[in-house]
Amino acid sequence: MRYLPLTPADRATMLARIGVDNIDALFSDVPADALQAGPIAGLPAHASEMAVERHMGRLAGENLSAGAAPFFLGAGAYKHHIPASVDHLIQRGEFLTAYTPYQPEIAQGTLQVLFEFQTQVARLLGTDIANASLYDGSTACWEAIAMAHRVTKRKKSILTGGLHPHYVATAQTMARFTDDVLVAQAPVLSGDAEDAAIIAAIDGETSAVVVQYPDILGRIPDLAAIAAAAQAHGALLIAVVTEPVALGLLEAPGALGADIVVGEGQSLGVGLQFGGPYLGLFGCREKFLRQIPGRLCGETVDAEGRRSFVLTLSTREQHIRREKATSNICTNSGLCALAFSIHMSLLGGAGLERLARINHGKAQALAQALMQVPGISVLNDAYFNEFTVILPKDAREVVDALAAKGVLGGVPLGRLYTNQPALANGLLLTATECTSDEDIAALVAALKEVL
Amino acid sequence: MNAPNASGWRPEMGEAGAILPATVSGDHGLNLEEKLIFELAAPGTYGVDFDDADVAPAPALGKFLRKAAPALPGLTEPEVVRHYTRLSRQNYAIDLGPFPLGSCTMKHNPRLNEKVARMAGFADVHPLQPTQTVQGALKVITQLADWLMALTGMPAVAMTPKAGAHGELCGLLCIRAALTARGEERPVVLVPESAHGTNPATAAFAGFRVENIPATEDGRVDVAALTARLGPDIAGVMITNPNTCGLFERDLKVISDAVHGVGGYVYCDGANFNAIVGKVRPGDLGIDAMHINLHKTFSTPHGGGGPGSGPVVLSEALAPFAPLPFATLDADGVAHLVEEGDAHDHGHPNSFGRMTAFHGQMGMFTRALTYILSHGADGLRQVSEDAVLNANYILRELEDVLDAPFAAYGPCMHEALFSDNGMAEGFSTLDLAKGLIDEGFHPMTVYFPLVVHGAMLVEPTETESKAGTDRLIASMRSLAERGRAGDVTLKSAPHYTPRRRVDETLAARKPKLVWKD
């Protein structure tokens, strides 16, 4: 077996040293009727590297990958080009096969990366500070709500209509079992973001208002106005960014007054991977420091006075505080944070802006092209790289028909909102730097055939 | 004047050979210092080439357009590759040597896993593609699910939890939902005092009150104390098996029956599943839920702190409440993704809901399935046997120089537990751990579990050769002897690392979490 270095002779020597006759003597604490012996029914035996690669390759071959088709999906997961050096560097064994940096003397590499990552994220989101990452955007969103409730000592948050429905569902799952109250606003198919309805809903009981930016339909809410309204009621604004590339062109939420900014960092450095692992971004005001969930890396010095980095403020965390911790989280998304940080280092602010302009330009070209298709109307007044169109029939049928023609034609709103017929004809479309003119032409041609 | 000359030599350094010369660069041969990216580059530059024809001529963003680009430095590819490669050399890693962190299962990460995870059909598919275009990805989930159910003897598995603690949460939410469905409010979850910190934190996060159960002298859950506490207010217990002392909980079936007898549920923390894969099916011991850390038992890389993956196997009693979405195969071999819209039609109307946006850690599923198929059922059993053999070998080789509090009660499982009893006055576990760093090893888990004074939990895993384990043992013997003798050089260890002991108090007292100009 290629991953097991012990030889039969080693095993015999070691058993003799231990002083037992056979391996099952070491399992003597297992009740005899629970100890498995003989072949395990239904499970195959070991296989060669070549055989396993062939099996997995066949399964991979049953999927239509984003790079192999005209592709227009987004809704919280985005297809971007990842520079080759990103994947090369994250596969260095010193990063890939290291543990959480609890021994700082031999983990300065990971720790410095996390410190750089936290700085990059804080600057990107426009917040004072950021943590070392969470599981993904949806769980980061719930952690932000829970933190807002600790900070404000209020129990009610407003989940606005433009928030990704999976993020809404994730938060609702958690709130079902706590005394937190979540008021979920229904999405409305309007060209403008729902700023007025959001502002009207904030009251003196509100702990936080959760606003996605750009929102699930691609619209851009007026965060500054919402932040002012929240502040007037002593509530916090939680901004949610599912497409961080947008912040190359859009003002940073923190600069617009958001108190907590969370996001899905997958767009930078992390592939689509059918939904995970992704990267939860979490930034906030410095005054909330001791209420932050998750790992934090801080600067310090070593015994010789040299700048060093270390995981810090762990008294918030479960391994110290146990049932009184700020969260039960025991990990970050380390390797994804590394990939994000490398990609961000290649782009810098100037490169990110350029990338964002290209994304926006591709989306404009896509919208222009779709407006020429009879029966299609573009919903949004403003958008970044993602927008909603209204079709003359259920978008799920249309997307299935497009898939049959080899076109991955966006996310039908009916997939995201299963019980809202009023949204069923809505189709969410995304263009990125990966979208070519030929892709757009293929979508337009296919749409003309299936509509 | 002490200005360095061209060679870096300064007068106070004295004669070459007596004191090592300082260097102008701050580097010392292959011991490289590396600045922060913010000190290496300024905003305005970048290392990605774009096609200018693609840039939007006029952003249609009105008042939302930002006034200036984010203040982030950019570097070219050669600079980036060098920065991160230099940083990587300041890390210890499994690829460099043994990583005997108890309860963390730092085993070799096979490179076939990485190759497979990067196949375009897995790495480059969107979670919301029409299911007819992702049949292979869904089958990866169902095939891995089948293995996890078979290896644990459990009838169902929830695949979406993103890490071990997220899996714990999934299990406890299932318990909450099951109790709610029965119309019962049970406020208390019992947790042994030796449990991982995530257990009580998760129980509290899920809205339960936590009560501790004591351990017996031989390192197991005190069954008498536990059963005495059982009653109608008990929602369930959380038990780690093998436990955090590295011991098998012999009486788990008795505990399960007693807990079920009062209407409670048994959550098993599966962090230590690597000791018993292919040897014991936890389902045979009566548990209701157990998370499986794919990043431990099934070799997906730890990545310097995640991402993990924590599927949860479930009993018949809890399965109806499992989260959405999930993948399933129909009789014709067609894979479906069951989401909110069709959960009812697939006979799953009582799910407690969604725990995360998409379908779980797919990138970890491909790696774990690749690992499982590589080993097969026979290889996985050998994995456990070798892991347990290596740990018992270490226990036997070191018990004369390190106090092994439970060694007299029988063999350990996949990790050997020692205490710092017998060290010289003022010497403790931390000193041995830092000394082990100087020896070129990552330390064992220290000061955990809390039930043993100065605990040292050593988990070699099955991927260490006998020669590698013997080297680790030789170093640990030497350190134990130096600790007993009170060798003061241990107090200042590590000496040979890129950084000496760091000031954690300063970091916490004056938190500096971001770089500032």
Automatic annotation (TrEMBL), chain A:
EC no. given is 1.4.4.2
Q: Which UniProt keywords apply?
A: Oxidoreductase
First-level EC class: oxidoreductase
Sorted alphabetically, which InterPro entries does this protein's record hold?
GcvPA, GDC-P_N, PyrdxlP-dep_Trfase, PyrdxlP-dep_Trfase_major, PyrdxlP-dep_Trfase_small
One biological process term from GO is:
nucleoside metabolic process
Query: Which is one GO molecular function term here?
Result: glycine dehydrogenase (decarboxylating) activity
Q: Does the record carry Ribonucleoprotein as a key word? A: no
Q: Where is the Glycine cleavage system P-protein N-terminal domain?
A: 1-446
rRNA-binding as a keyword of this entry, yes or no, is: no
Catalysis performed (reactions) = N(6)-[(R)-lipoyl]-L-lysyl-[glycine-cleavage complex H protein] + glycine + H(+) = N(6)-[(R)-S(8)-aminomethyldihydrolipoyl]-L-lysyl-[glycine-cleavage complex H protein] + CO2
Which Pfam families is this protein grouped with?
GDC-P
Give the UniProt family note. Belongs to the GcvP family. N-terminal subunit subfamily.
Quaternary assembly: The glycine cleavage system is composed of four proteins: P, T, L and H. In this organism, the P 'protein' is a heterodimer of two subunits.
Task: Check the record and name the PANTHER family matching this protein.
Answer: GLYCINE CLEAVAGE SYSTEM P-PROTEIN (PTHR42806), GLYCINE DEHYDROGENASE (DECARBOXYLATING) (PTHR42806:SF1)
Provide the protein name: Probable glycine dehydrogenase (decarboxylating) subunit 1
Q: Which organism is the protein's source?
A: Novosphingobium sediminicola
TrEMBL record, chain B:
**InterPro entries assigned:** Aminotrans_V_dom (IPR000192), GDC-P_C (IPR049316), GDC_P (IPR020581), PyrdxlP-dep_Trfase (IPR015424), PyrdxlP-dep_Trfase_major (IPR015421), PyrdxlP-dep_Trfase_small (IPR015422)
Any one GO biological process:
glycine decarboxylation via glycine cleavage system
- The record's EC number reads 1.4.4.2
Task: Pull one GO CC term from this UniProt entry.
Answer: cytosol
Q: Which residues form a coiled coil?
A: none
* Residues in Aminotransferase class V domain copies: 201-303
Which keywords does UniProt give here? Oxidoreductase, Pyridoxal phosphate
Which residue numbers delimit the Glycine dehydrogenase C-terminal domain? 384-481
Its catalytic activity? N(6)-[(R)-lipoyl]-L-lysyl-[glycine-cleavage complex H protein] + glycine + H(+) = N(6)-[(R)-S(8)-aminomethyldihydrolipoyl]-L-lysyl-[glycine-cleavage complex H protein] + CO2
Q: What class of enzyme is it?
A: oxidoreductase
Q: What GO molecular function annotations does the UniProt record carry, in alphabetical order?
A: glycine binding; glycine dehydrogenase (decarboxylating) activity; pyridoxal phosphate binding
> What is the purpose of this protein?
The glycine cleavage system catalyzes the degradation of glycine. The P protein binds the alpha-amino group of glycine through its pyridoxal phosphate cofactor; CO(2) is released and the remaining methylamine moiety is then transferred to the lipoamide cofactor of the H protein.
According to UniProt, the name of this protein is: glycine dehydrogenase (aminomethyl-transferring)
